[in-house]
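Render Arginase in 3D.
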Amino acid sequence: MHDVDKHGIGKVVEMALESVNKDLKRPIHLSFDVDALDPSVAPSTGTPVRGGLTFREGHYICEAIYETGCLVALTSWKSTPSS
């Protein structure tokens, strides 16, 4: 979260893509762990940790990866609905 606080989510996504798929020539499988979201956004996560990503930041990550044209698969993890 330090990098998100320091640079903003857009820059962090840009840096991550530069690191793993510089020329955007390889397919991307995005595995999105809901535990990364703040519990105010995802209260039924398995491991709630305050200070996580906002809804908009999580949504932005998915949008930005999709817009590369390289996204071939997306998985989402960890929802533990409360009774």
